[in-house]
Amino acid sequence: MLDLVWLIPALPLAGFLLLALFGPRLSRRAVALVGAGVVLASAVVSWLVAFSFLTSPPPGASYTQNLWTWMDVAGFQPRMALYLDPLSLVMMLVVTSVGFLIHWYSTEFMAGDEGYSRFFAYMNIFVASMLVLILGDNLLLLYLGWEGVGLSSYLLIGFWYTDPANGRAARKAFYVTRVGDTAMSVGLFLLFTQFGTLQIQDLMRKAHDQWGMVPPGGIATAAGLLLLGGACGKSAQLPLQVWLPDAMAGPTPTSALIHAATMVTAGVYLIARTHVLFELSPTAELAVAVVGAATLIVAGFSAMTQWDIKKSLAFSTISQIGYMFLALGVGAWSAAIFHFVTHAFFKALLFLGAGIVIEACHHEHSMFKMGGLRKELPVAFWTFTIGGCSLAGLPLVTAGFYSKGLIIWSAYASKGGALGLWAAAVFGALLTSIYTFRMIFLTFFGEAKSEVVKRPGTAMKVPVMILAFFAVVAGFVETPGFLGGVRVFSDFMSQALPDAVPRGSLAMSEWGSEAVVTLVFFAGLVIAYYFFLKKPALQEFVTAPAAGRALHRFWFSDWGMDWLYDKVFVQPILWFARINKSDFIDAFYGAVAAVTRALWVILRSTQTGRVRWYAAVVVAGTVLFVALALYL
Amino acid sequence: MIGLLVRRNLLFILMSLEVMVNAAGLAFVVAGASHGQADGQVMFIFILAVAAAEVAVGLALVLLLYHRYRTLDVDMASQLRG
Q1: What is the pLDDT of residue B79?
Q2: How far apart are the C-alpha atoms of A312 and A319, rounded to whole Å?
Q3: Which of A405, A504, B3, B74 is the least crowded, having the fewest Cβ atoms under 10 Å away?
Q4: Residue A623's CB: how many other CB atoms inside 10 A?
Q5: Chain A residues touching residue B5 (CB < 8 angstroms)
Q6: Which of chain A's residues have a Cβ under 8 Å away from the Cβ of B72?
Q7: Which of A408, A406, A402 is closest to A427 using CA atoms?
């Protein structure tokens, strides 16, 4: 069964080729069948592979399928090989399953769109690249998938290309992630020069052997930091998070699949995959934790101030990935992957729910123009509320409570943990609760401000219901000690990732940490209730003073990062391009063009179309040349 | 040759062309005779064949032009487009 693993990325790739070549000639029904069908097939194969992996585990809890040698240059032999272990297995299951649900939803959501087959072609190439990224056995193959998802993200953000703003958002996402990708490729070069291989397992073993004995010094830290740079770009972490809010210009299913559930967590996967390097370099590991903690708070504040429901969700995604980075940074590897799984479910759910709402309200994105949709869109309301509760961490019931609680506890109790990181994570949980319930109250409660023009059909309702189910039950695979102590997930993960090492002498118990998390959840709920439902006048009270307004604007604009980058990078480069517009080389080619043009003007005037002129010129020419031949 | 340059009627231009071709042929024959060789006459046969082909194409073009413009004035043909 395990040897079917090559089919998992191959099927979406085949779907992409089919749709890219014949898409416009297929009927919409056929396009939907192919587009969603290949991902369903891929998901079914993944579940079969997972079943076989669990029932008869391969030796060493990992399985490598070698397809062919990619190239062979001077001892550099990256293989086209797929590597399956608990980490890639979990990622693969989530990507294909959530991916299929979102494809299914898209068959209805995109139904009226002109680029129907183009959309599914892009979505399929995304799923294929993401699976290559996850299953890649060496870092080069991972990089191929990494760039593939970057490309499909670019294509899908700019999907509605007739609006120049969407094209700008797509380019911005591409450029900003490119900064991270460059750091990452430098990191890969560094690792290759050190160890002479990019095969992940070999690399990890060699790194452990060489750098584990003697203190590795700067190189391990540099490699770790460069990989972290790549991860920051792809996962929209500080300071490269500016592209994700703009990426919301793409269709909503894209935001759900790429910019919430799967692609943006590629950085988490990268760091988890190369965890040995980070364990060898405490500095790099601390940097991961600090980036995560800083991002989750910065993005939490920004999420609170957005009026666009999708941008609010985008900042929430940045913030939740910050949690994952925090978990990675303190060495709680499986907690990060656990949060990735639950986040994939509830954030995809929230985006799909937002898609229903947006489509119902004439493509209105502003939460302040919605309201009272609870009665009109009951399915969207209930599923969105379940997703929101999971995101904010409604105690005991939802998946988000367990995964986030585990991260917050690890931020304190793990080897790399500290009280400061714990406090940041708890504060982030308060912000999460506030902005989540702000979204729910503004969208679904209060008085109705817009009429509902489109109600979701089956293909949109069923996927969100399935996701809502998982947004609740996915948490029960891993519960804290005082709540049954189920450890299914971390036991499974421990075959691929080391367990979190607890540090000694703790002043607080896990019970206390979870109690505080519960407390801030309800505090956030109450604050949101008073500000956005009970007494909206309180908003005025806070934003009316100059300081409050300035702070609101500061957070709304993503802490002024766009402005800063515009001034520091974009404007100088544009200025440099402007002054270099007519340099020597440009002038030379300009002159070539001008001379050609002048010749064209002269020659054009001879082509009058008058036959007798042609004849006369032929005669004159003959006379001239005969005369020359005779007298010279 | 003067006929070719000054006439505007396509038929006359074609006739002038024929005369010019025949003149060239005559020159070949005379040159061949004066050198006592048959090459000049061989060349004339070639010229006849070419002239016949040219007239076939030329007359067809003339017919088409006439259908289109209802005139045989060559200067009207400068309006040809696409």
Answers
A1: 67
A2: 11
A3: A504
A4: 10
A5: 612, 615-616, 619
A6: none
A7: A408
Confidence of residue A482 (pLDDT cuts 50, 70, 90): confident
Instruction: Pull the structure tokens for residue A105.
Output: 């939803």
Contact state of A612 with B79 under an 8 Å Cβ cutoff: no
Give every CB contact of residue A403 below 8 A, 6+ residues apart in sequence. A335, A338, A339, A341, A342, A343, A475, A478
pLDDT at A113 over 90: no
A149 has a pLDDT exceeding 80: yes
Size of interface A-B (CB pairs under 8 A): 24
What residues of B are in contact with residue A616 (Cβ under 8 Å)?
5
Tokens representing residue A483 in the block = 């709540």
Residue A315's SS3 state is helix
A617 in contact with B, Cβ within 8 Å: no
Name the residue of chain A whose CA is nearest to B74's CA: A611
Torsion angles phi and psi, residue A80, rounded to 5: -85, 90
Kindly determine whether residue B79 and residue A609, on different chains, have CB atoms separated by under 8 Å.
Answer: yes
Tokens of A506: 């703790």
pLDDT in the model for residue B82: 44
Helix intervals (H) in chain B:
2-6, 10-35, 39-69
Query: Residue A141 is inside which H or E element, if any?
Result: helix A139-157
Cis omega (within 30 of 0) on the bond before A24?
Answer: no
Alpha-carbon distances, residue A121 vs A35, A79, A127 (angstroms): 7, 27, 10
Q: Which residues contact A525 (CB under 8 A, 6 or more apart)?
A: A392, A433, A437
Residue whose C-alpha is closest to residue B55's, from B23, B7, B10: B10
A253, A109 contact by CB (below 8 A): yes
Which of A15, A82, A84, A79 lies closest to A49 in space, CA to CA? A84
Query: Does the model's ipTM exceed the 0.90 cut?
Result: no
Q: In angstroms, rounded to a whole number, what is the distance separating the alpha carbons of residues B23 and A632?
A: 27
Distances (CA, A) of A136 to A5, A39, A54, A338: 11, 19, 20, 21
Report whether pLDDT(A155) > 80. Answer: yes
> How many other β-carbons are positioned within 10 Å of the β-carbon of residue A198?
23
| A535 three-class SS | coil
Residues A274-322 pLDDT 10s: 888 888 888 888 899 999 999 988 998 888 888 888 999 999 999 999 9
Which DSSP string corresponds to A89-119?
HHHHHHHHHHHHHHHHHHHHHTTT-TTHHHH
Does the pLDDT value for residue A107 go beyond 70?
yes
Residues of A in contact with B79 (CB under 8 A): 609
Residue A214: pLDDT band with limits 50, 70, 90: low
**CA nearest to A609 within chain B:** B78
Of A274, A295, A284, A179, the C-alpha closest to A233 is: A179
Task: Decide: A492 and A379 in contact? Cβ < 8 Å.
Answer: no
Confidence of residue A215 (pLDDT cuts 50, 70, 90): low
Q: What is the per-residue pLDDT across A539-581, written as a single tens digit (0 to 9) for each?
A: 777 777 888 888 888 888 878 788 888 888 889 988 988 888 7
Determine the Cα–Cα distance for residues A628 and B23; give it in Å rounded to an integer: 23
SS3 label, residue A365: coil
pTM of the model: 0.80
Nearest to A616 among B5, B74, B75 (CB): B5
Beta strand segments in A32-187, E: 63-69, 79-84
Rg (CA), chain B: 16
Q: What token pair was written down for A146?
A: 């990494």
Residue A136 DSSP SS3: strand
